Amino acid sequence: MTSKPFCRWCGKPIAKKTFGHWFNSPLPQSREDAQRRVNGQITKVNRWPSTIDDKQKAGKIFSANTWDGGSYRTVYGFFCSSVCAGHYAENFADLTGEGHPRWQEAIDKAEGRA
């Protein structure tokens, strides 16, 4: 996918598909140092608290999320959530009066036409 996708119901951007990376010793001290050790664009870094007792880890990066520059979450297809997908489907059914062929079969059966 080359352009950023947006939810077809609310217009919110579809989330990027990211991957987590955990670092071993030596832990990166900066975002740039972490970037050199992973493939993909870093979207988030997680650091040890500076108040931690282990001074070898304090303030250093222990993990990072990366994005490949083109993948987006497709859990809900063209939508940012199942709620938006449901709203879209409900709106479509209301506007068109149409449904899935199984729905039409059920209506026909209930009305004695099948």
- The rounded Rg comes to 24 Å
Structural class: alpha+beta
* Secondary structure: helix percent: 25-40%
Number of strands: 3
Give the strand line-up of the largest sheet: 1-3-2
Number of helices: 3
- Roughly how many Å apart are the termini? 44 Å
How much of the sequence is in beta strands? Answer: 15-25%
Largest beta-sheet details:
3 strands, antiparallel
Report on the architecture of this protein.
The protein is an alpha+beta fold and 114 residues long. Helix content is 27%, strand content 23%. The chain contains three helices and three strands; from the N terminus they run βαββαα. It has helices spanning 31-36, 82-96, 101-110; strands spanning 16-22, 41-47, 61-72. A three-stranded antiparallel β-sheet has the order 1-3-2. The chain is rod-shaped and about 75 Å long. The mean pLDDT is 92.
Topology:
Blueprint: E1 16-22, H1 31-36, E2 41-47, E3 61-72, H2 82-96, H3 101-110
Antiparallel strand pairs: 1-3, 2-3
Feature tags:
114 residues, alpha+beta, three-stranded antiparallel sheet, 3 strands, 27% helix, 23% strand, rod-shaped
Short description:
By secondary structure, the protein is of the alpha+beta class.
